[in-house]
Amino acid sequence: MRLVFAGTPAAAVPTLRRLATLHEIVAVVTRPDAPLGRKRVLTPSPVAQAAVELGLPIIRTARLDDAATAEIAALQPDLGVIVAYGGLVREPLLSVPASGWINLHFSLLPAWRGAAPVQRALIAGDRELGASVFQLVAELDAGDVFARRVVAVPDTATAGEALEILAADGADLTADVVAAIADGTAAAAPQTGEPTFAGKLSHGDGLLDWNLPLTAVYARFRGVTPEPGAHTTVGGQSLKVLEAAPAADAEPLAPGQLSGTKSAVLIGTASGPLAVTRVQPAGRAAMNAVDWWRGQRGADDLRAGS
């Protein structure tokens, strides 16, 4: 099939690479180069970098507007495939490919429609994660589903780690659906059940509330790592929590109370401590939590969240 592929982050790259081995990619649509790092160097998106490696034509655009629509229409694609592009596909572009557009979404639809499905699922404590491939329609992530699959993800995985697993599995799932559309055997079914929504996360979503039970604190840590990042305050200073896990066989601590061990800094919650092993203080590089803790000796009544 003649495919147009739209995607931007690293999570979209496995699907692009998989489809490029099976079909003709007439264009790769991705967001424009963006400034990254402290020096704000303009950097191509991961999808753009993969497209260059594969020798595929690229359309860089921040909006799928009339100009982008005309450029895609001129290529006469059979099908559009979108994976985390970062913009909405509306009419008339929705109807440009002969078979419309399909979307790989990293949730078990209708759960977690929206921009941050993996993060929101982890924060909510969902036990099952998965991916769905559905027919793109004007309503947000509401189209009929061709395929959905539960994907095994370790119960210690952060959102970043879970997304890598889902992206790899989702590439095969998407390839199967494209093959079925190509040979005329694809069948999609309406979504059933009450939808939940996964709005984009902000910096504030990463704030850890030590007054909650350990399960809730750890779920939020997993869901916001690496972006927007888990954080707290200690002595009025911001502290990013980069690596953490529930402490095993540790003595209870009051919510927000800190205690150092040989391998971690324990922070109390409402039901047991979280063992923090790597942190990043404000304005400093990431470091082992124990090294940071040694530097706090002599400070009075240090408590996370204050």
Question: How would you sum up this structure, described in words?
Answer:
The structure is a single chain. The chain is elongated. The model has no long low-confidence stretch (mean pLDDT 95). It is an alpha/beta fold and 306 residues long. Helix 1 packs parallel to helix 2, helix 1 runs parallel beside helix 5 and helix 4 packs antiparallel against helix 6. The strands form four sheets. Strands 5-2-1-6-7-9-10 form a seven-stranded mixed β-sheet, sandwiched between helices. Strands 12, 13, 14, 15, 16 and 17 form a six-stranded antiparallel β-sheet that branches. The protein is built from seven helices and 17 strands. The longest helix has 25 residues.
Keywords, please?
306 residues, seven-stranded mixed β-sheet, six-stranded antiparallel β-sheet, 7 helices, 17 strands, 24% helix
How does the SSE layout of this entry go?
Layout: E1 2-7, H1 13-20, E2 24-30, E3 34-36, E4 41-43, H2 46-54, E5 58-60, H3 66-73, E6 79-83, E7 101-105, E8 113-114, H4 117-123, E9 129-135, E10 145-151, H5 159-183, E11 197-198, H6 214-224, E12 230-234, E13 237-246, E14 258-260, E15 265-267, E16 274-281, E17 287-288, H7 289-294
Parallel strand pairs: 1-2, 1-6, 2-5, 6-7, 8-11
Antiparallel strand pairs: 3-4, 7-9, 9-10, 12-13, 13-16, 14-15, 15-16, 16-17
Helix pairs in contact: 1-2, 1-5, 4-6
